[in-house]
């Protein structure tokens, strides 16, 4: 039955996607005599962890019970007390953990604490699903850089607009609504200055669900961003404008007065690795990249894309002058091509969505 109870815990964790930034999604279920006596999920950074919610619900019935947790209980004092310690004090007899926490503050210490207290600890139940659920958090903890999801929308022949520049809308309403759901699942949404100048986007996740509103990030090498840009007017989320160093002090001052945070990048915004380092320092755990072909090409050539969302409309545009998904110098031999594995296919209206992950 361990897998059955863990599945319930994983569903609880999944229900919080987009609202726990910068923390991972975690679910917990407490079972006694074949019935659930407590359950919980971590809802928001700084608030009680999943185990604490489940223990509060179980009350005295936690004694002698089993707890199923999707991520190793923490063992350190942070914004909340250690969950491993509270599990021990509640009298839990058995702890089933799906995935170990790669955070150096935890990293096996929670499991060790519970084992030393005499609790039975079982690990690895539902590990693959738990690791995929928190793949973005795990990547950030291990690398200090955001997990990058690249999004494209194109025709069957890979075109993003006609030769005259018409691009709204290649995909239909249902696919565009799904893009907003995907935006919400990330902590930052990135576009290039070309997209900002041509479309004046808000770069928000316009979905009814609650959650953390992703930061807006603009790559703007020459600080061409207008102070009256839509995203600077709405105050919906932070706006980071990354630019080359040195930046115009006067333009930087005007943008910051308009509500942006201007961040000069010493090696320039074309150095995508440096850009990701800066965003990692801003605690951007996951990044949604949907800039123009130039920005997407830069991320592809830097080999920093972990996940690829490809929306394809059942139309053919044609024309050698019609823009494609990626720009850049490209590759000279097929063996140099970046490999992605197909994870999932979905249909939204008449459009297809392909979710792919980068190969190791």
H/E element order: HEEHEHEHEHHEHEHEHEHEHEHEEE
How many strands, which pairing sense, and closed or not: the largest β-sheet? 9 strands, mixed
Structural class: alpha/beta
Q: How far apart are the first and last residues' alpha carbons, in Å? A: 33 Å
Helix proportion range: 25-40%
- Give the overall shape, derived from the CA principal axes: globular
Mean pLDDT: 90
How many helices? The count is: 12
Strand content: 15-25%
Number of strands: 14
Strand order of the largest sheet: 10-9-8-7-11-6-12-14-13
* Low-pLDDT runs: none
Q: Radius of gyration over alpha carbons?
A: 23 Å
Search tags:
globular; alpha/beta; nine-stranded mixed beta sheet; 360 residues
Question: Mind explaining what this structure looks like?
Answer:
It is a single chain. The chain has 360 residues and is of the alpha/beta class. It is 29% helix and 24% strand. The protein is built from 12 helices and 14 strands. It has helices at residues 2-14, 50-58, 83-89, 109-116, 127-133, 135-143, 173-184, 193-199, 230-234, 249-258, 272-281, 293-301, and strands at residues 27-32, 35-41, 66-71, 94-99, 120-123, 147-154, 188-192, 215-219, 239-244, 261-265, 286-289, 307-312, 340-348, 351-358. A 9-stranded mixed β-sheet has the order 10-9-8-7-11-6-12-14-13, sandwiched between helices. A hairpin with a 2-residue loop joins strand 1 (27-32) and strand 2 (35-41). The longest helix is centred in the N-terminal third of the chain and has 13 residues, at 2-14. It is globular and about 70 Å long. The protein starts with a helix and ends with a strand. The relative contact order is 0.12. The model has no long low-confidence stretch (mean pLDDT 90).
């Amino acid at each position: 039955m361990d897998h059955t109870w863990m599945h319930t815990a994983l569903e609880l964790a999944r229900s919080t996607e987009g609202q726990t930034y910068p923390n991972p999604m975690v679910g917990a279920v407490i079972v006694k005599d074949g019935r659930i006596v407590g359950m919980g999920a971590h809802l928001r950074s700084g608030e009680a962890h999943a185990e604490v919610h489940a223990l509060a619900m179980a009350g005295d019935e936690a004694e002698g019970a089993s707890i199923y947790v999707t991520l190793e209980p923490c063992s350190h004092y942070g914004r909340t007390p250690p969950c491993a310690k509270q599990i021990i004090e509640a009298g839990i007899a058995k702890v089933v953990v799906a995935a170990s926490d790669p955070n150096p503050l935890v990293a096996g210490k929670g499991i060790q604490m519970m084992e030393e207290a005499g609790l039975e600890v079982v690990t690895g139940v539902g590990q693959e699903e738990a690791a995929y659920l928190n793949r973005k958090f795990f990547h950030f903890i291990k690398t200090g850089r955001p997990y990058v999801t690249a999004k494209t929308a194109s025709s069957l022949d890979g075109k993003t607009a006609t030769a005259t520049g018409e691009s709204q809308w290649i995909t239909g309403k249902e696919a565009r609504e799904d893009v907003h759901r995907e935006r919400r699942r990330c902590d930052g949404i990135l576009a290039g200055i070309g997209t900002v100048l041509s479309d004046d986007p808000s770069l928000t996740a316009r979905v009814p669900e609650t959650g953390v509103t992703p930061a807006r990030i603009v790559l703007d090498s020459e600080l061409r961003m207008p102070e009256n840009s839509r995203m600077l007017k709405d105050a919906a989320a932070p706006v980071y404008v990354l630019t080359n160093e040195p930046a115009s002090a006067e333009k930087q001052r005007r943008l910051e007065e308009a509500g942006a945070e201007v961040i000069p990048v010493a090696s320039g915004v074309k150095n995508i690795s440096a850009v990701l380092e800066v965003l990692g320092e801003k605690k951007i755990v996951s990044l949604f990249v949907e800039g123009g072909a130039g920005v997407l090409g830069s991320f592809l050539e830097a080999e920093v894309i972990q996940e690829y969302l490809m929306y394809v409309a059942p139309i053919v545009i044609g024309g050698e002058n019609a823009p494609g998904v990626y720009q850049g110098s490209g590759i000279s031999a097929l063996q140099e091509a970046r490999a992605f594995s197909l994870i999932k296919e979905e249909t939204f209206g008449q459009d297809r969505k392909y979710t792919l992950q980068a190969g190791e």
